[in-house]
Amino acid sequence: MKGKMKTYTIEEITDKHIGKRGTSERDKFDFELKLDILGEMIKRIRLEKQLTQEQLGKLIGVQKAQISKIENNTKDVRLSTIMRVFYALKTKVRMSIEFDQDSQVELVG
Questions:
Q1: What crossing angle do the helices spanning 24-48 and 10-17 adopt, rounded to 10°?
Q2: In a 3-state reduction of DSSP, which class is residue 31?
Q3: 73, 82 in Cβ contact below 8 A?
């Protein structure tokens, strides 16, 4: 029998293939991953509430295409639109934005 297979953590794989935390490549990757997760959350909640993208768009005054952009991680979406989506879905939101190590803003809606 051959030796054990080495296992790696997601962090180790990401460090190796994307870059270590603090590098511009890693920061970009982490940011895009968070946008993907946010879009998936919105889509899941919308579907749980049995709303179409068009219906949700009408609730907040945007076109269906804008809801699709949010759910599919298009980068040109305003934070205010995302907050209106969560409000329309009657979902509590808590977001934390870190500018640097010493300053942080928390949004609760």
A1: 130
A2: helix
A3: no
Interval 35-64: pLDDT, tens:
888 889 999 999 999 999 999 999 999 999
8 Å CB contact between 95 and 106: yes
Residue 34 scores a pLDDT above 70: yes
Cα-based torsion angle of the residue sequence 102, 29, 9, 45 in order, rounded to the nearest 10 degrees? 90
pLDDT band of 67, cuts 50, 70, 90: very high
Check if the beta carbon of residue 80 is closer than 8 Å to that of residue 74: no
* Residue carrying structure tokens 């049995």: 50
Within the chain, residue ranges assigned H as helices are 10-17, 24-48, 53-60, 64-71, 79-88
